[in-house]
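## retry 2 of 3
previous attempt timed out at serialization; input unchanged, resubmitting
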Amino acid sequence: PFSDGLNLSTNARGSNTINLSIFDATIGVQTVYVNVTNSSGGQNATYTATREGTTNNYVISTLNTTHFPDGVYNLTIYANDTVGNLNNSAIVQRVSFDNTAPTITHSCDDYSVDEDELITCTCSASDSLSGLNLSYGTNGRTFTANPSTSSSGNNFATTCTSQDKASNFRTSTLYYNVSGSSGSSTTSSSSGSGSTSNSS
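## retry succeeded, writing output
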């Protein structure tokens, strides 16, 4: 499932598996491994693939991207036959390892209102590496611009969630209070931010 320009996150996916199909018609394959280098060509890691039975399929069951700093990497597949002939022509380029959730800026224009008064909230998000997944929600985030004030009470939650192209999520939660038509509320607002995860 690896291709040039792919965005990967172990936090979001749990693990990343590399599946390879390698064939040698003469005397067979001896060793298959994947070399990971950063965008400037520096060596980062080497993973040896395991053959699946007697098939031509080889697998690296776990590529844990959290072992690497967030950034852009190249993956080169090496295959040796039993007399040392080497093929390293298969290269997957510019793969982004991104385990950091997007940054969210989330606010509302009021946090203590009377019933049926209007609250207007805004939310913006950014992601410096893989970028926002623009197909998630609206332009990479989902939130309610005007949360309900139809009933009175304290600590109603309104959230904004964003997803990047590596499937990392971040959620910001704000709380507001709604007073009855003849009452008032003095409880202050609070806010928080969720951790990187593939669910909220």
